[in-house]
Amino acid sequence: MFPFAPQRSVNGVIKLMEKIMKNLIGLFALLSINSFAHANDSFVVNAKIYENKNLISSPTLVVNSDEKASIIIDDLYHLALTLTPIDDSTASLQTELDIGGKHMSPSLVVELGKQASIRIDGNEFSVIVNKSSS
């Protein structure tokens, strides 16, 4: 019986490795589908830009996930942002805002449908982010 014991052990290891590989392939496929779904998401960003407590603009941008979107209004301001979904209810927003000769680069984690804002040196940037319906 001893000569056959190592063979049984090898067969057991092979079956275990096959099972692990099948599980890993399934997990990889699931993660790929999830990241693909987020890659195609688009969002509506309703922004408000204040300079010294005065509302100077309220642009609405439709933004594809992980793609930079920007708007320039004459010499008044320049806004650029990149939105990355975190999960079904939150997203990370990387922004760049030039206003009144000042540069802001706030990063925000926003809850979809809820207002988030940041104020720096009398300038304020406020957003509400929602998934696009289209």
Q: Explain this structure to me?
A:
With 134 residues, this protein is an alpha+beta fold. It has two domains: 2-38; 40-131, no CATH class. Helices cover 26% and strands 50% of the residues. Strands 1, 2, 3, 9 and 10 form a five-stranded antiparallel β-sheet that branches. Strands 4, 5, 6, 7 and 8 form a five-stranded antiparallel β-sheet that branches. The longest helix has 35 residues, at 5-39.
Structure in a nutshell:
The chain has 134 residues and is α+β, with helices and mostly antiparallel strands. It has one helix at residues 5-39, and strands spanning 42-51, 54-57, 60-64, 68-73, 77-85, 90-99, 102-104, 107-111, 115-120, 123-131.
Question: Which key phrases capture this entry?
Answer:
about 25% helix, about 130 residues, five-stranded antiparallel sheet, elongated, alpha+beta, 1 helix
Task: Describe the secondary-structure layout.
Layout: H1 5-39, E1 42-51, E2 54-57, E3 60-64, E4 68-73, E5 77-85, E6 90-99, E7 102-104, E8 107-111, E9 115-120, E10 123-131
Distance between the termini: 68 Å
Question: How would a crystallographer describe the biggest sheet?
Answer: 5 strands, antiparallel
Give the count of helical stretches.
1
* Total count of strands: 10
How would you describe the shape? Answer: elongated
Based on secondary structure, the structural category is: alpha+beta
Domains counted in the coordinates: how many?
2
Radius of gyration: 25 Å
Measured as a percent range, the helix fraction is 25-40%
- Model regions low in confidence, pLDDT < 50 over at least 5 residues: 34-38
